[in-house]
Specification:
Glycosyltransferase, three-stranded antiparallel beta sheet, alpha+beta, about 35% helix, four-stranded antiparallel beta sheet, 6hp_glycosidase-like_sf
Length: about 500
């Protein structure tokens, strides 16, 4: 016997942010990968379906779509999560990026408010229907909350990358005022601090203690396991900021805005500060690895964490530094069968199922793989990509938000309260494809670059539905590493290798 239910949901209470489903506004029907390793095929197919059903529309502009962070706990607009999901999906879509950029731009900060952490030019952290009240921890978040240090530079990075991927000039022009305000907040927040680093601290006493992507209260650990005090200057926040400043400079030049040279000088200064400040000397080895952060006491948060992987490909590392970071991330203390752990196994605080203290986060590992590919460390990128596909298969091709990378009966153990599906986890499938292909699309320059990993980690593969502006194209790579690119408009230069 079978029973069928038809469900017709009705809102019983309205709020200022009643987002509707947006699956119908983005079509990934042409996107697919066919590979000798069929697990990659299934990984991308399932991830695209999951992500499509996490799409939502802006109630102020119902044609603009963004990815809700995840279900069941965070099916709403999140600055960082929605931005990363859109950015990772750029090989297959600029529509999601455009909707995400505009939805966040409409809610850009306009005033200083310590309770909401709002500031002029700042991009928000999250929007909720109700006040988030966790009395036992003292956490009280308002319905619109700006407690994030990295959403603003990530918004700038997404705008730049979307323009490179084919977002129309008119759409970019409409967002230039938002860009300029975001640049003012980002550069002032860094240069007005005592050490010229972008920092965060919760001044309200009721907001998030940590305001990067590792936002749990105990995520910032020193090498001895001790929790570091605020205000914190995260390594990845500095890296995003350098990348954002250089991307903004390119946009300023292209669209006739003044200040490109100043932005490039700012990026150079911050790069030097990172180079001079973050590297850890230990066990007789100088510049062994970069710390996760600088804490409020001016000490390095020298626990070995996955944060360093987010600096790969941003321009903040030299070639030698990128090699050292890649080696650390793929060492036994960080890398396992199912991904890169958030904290090193040898740290006293390591917990394989701890939220940010040893678990594996799908998007975190994917960003590391993509950065390795961009830095030319293709063998390492291939190994990390394979670990993610193996974890996807273990979870029936629906990645959770996070999980334990330590095998239990040969499988990764799920985190009990993890979102599943989750937007930036699902979008990680696109990052794997991009990393393995070594794909870069530059519509303004009319160039597509393909530098595939060799030997190919998933055998021969063909990827369809890749985007060059409004045009879809196909990349085929055989087992010998030979590349064919089909469907691009006339006049586009294809660079192989």
């Amino acid at each position: 016997m079978s029973v069928t239910f038809d469900v017709d949901p009705v809102r019983t209470r309205a709020s200022a942010f009643d987002a509707d489903p947006g699956a119908h506004l983005v079509d990934w029907g042409a996107a697919s990968v066919v590979a000798d390793d069929t697990r990659l095929t299934e990984t991308l197919s399932s991830a695209l379906a999951d992500l499509q059903h996490l799409l939502m529309t802006d109630p102020e502009a119902p044609d603009d779509v963004f990815a809700g962070a995840g279900t069941p706990w965070y099916l709403t607009l999140f600055g960082r999560d929605s931005l990363w999901a859109a950015r990772l999906m750029l090989p297959f879509s600029t529509e999601l990026a455009a909707g995400t950029l505009r939805t966040l731009a409409r809610r850009q900060g306009v005033k200083d408010d310590p309770v909401t952490a709002e500031a002029p030019g700042k991009i928000l952290h999250e929007v909720r229907r109700d006040l988030f009240d966790q009395s036992e921890s003292g956490l009280h978040l308002p319905t619109v909350y700006y407690g994030t240090v990295d959403a603003t530079p990530l918004w700038i990075c997404l705008l730049h990358d979307s323009w490179r991927s084919g977002l129309s000039d008119n759409e970019v022009r409409d967002l230039l005022p938002t860009l300029q305000r975001a640049v003012v907040w980002m550069t002032a927040a860094a240069e007005d601090s005592d050490d010229g680093l972008l920092r965060y601290v919760d001044t309200s006493g009721s907001g998030l203690a940590n305001q990067g992507w590792k936002d749990s209260g105990d995520s910032m650990r020193r090498i001895d396991g001790e929790v570091a005090p605020a205000p914190i200057a995260l390594l990845e926040a500095q890296a995003y900021t350098v990348e954002a400043a250089r991307g903004a400079a390119a946009l300023y030049r292209e669209f006739g805005l003044e200040g490109a040279e100043q932005l490039e000088s700012f990026a150079d200064r911050l790069t030097e500060r990172v180079r001079d400040t973050y590297w850890v000397d230990r066990d007789g080895v100088e510049r062994l690895y970069p710390a996760m952060a600088v804490d409020g006491e001016g000490r390095l948060v020298d626990g070995i964490g996955s944060n360093m992987g987010h600096a790969l490909g941003t321009g903040v590392l030299t070639a030698d530094e990128a090699t050292r970071v890649t080696a650390m991330l793929t060492s036994e203390t960080m890398f396992g069968r199912f991904g890169i752990s958030t904290l090193a196994r040898r740290n006293p605080a390591f917990n394989p199922i701890g939220y940010h203290s040893g678990s594996v986060w799908t998007h975190d590992t994917a960003i590391c793989a993509l950065g390795m590919s961009r830095e030319g460390h293709t063998e390492a990128a291939a190994a990390v990509a394979r670990s993610l596909v193996e974890s996807a298969a273990a979870f029936d091709y629906r990645w959770p938000e996070l999980y334990s990378g330590e095998p239990v009966l040969g499988r990764p153990a799920p985190y009990p309260a993890s979102c599943r599906p989750q937007a930036w986890s699902a979008a990680s499938a696109s990052a794997i494809v991009q990393a393995v292909l070594g794909l870069s699309v530059d519509v303004p320059a009319q160039v597509v670059r393909v530098n595939p990993v060799h030997p190919t980690p998933f055998g021969a593969m063909q990827v369809r539905g890749l985007r060059y502006g409004p045009t879809t194209f196909t990349v085929t790579v055989d087992t010998a590493g030979q590349v064919a690119v089909d469907g691009l408009p006339d006049g586009v230069t294809v660079e192989i290798g």
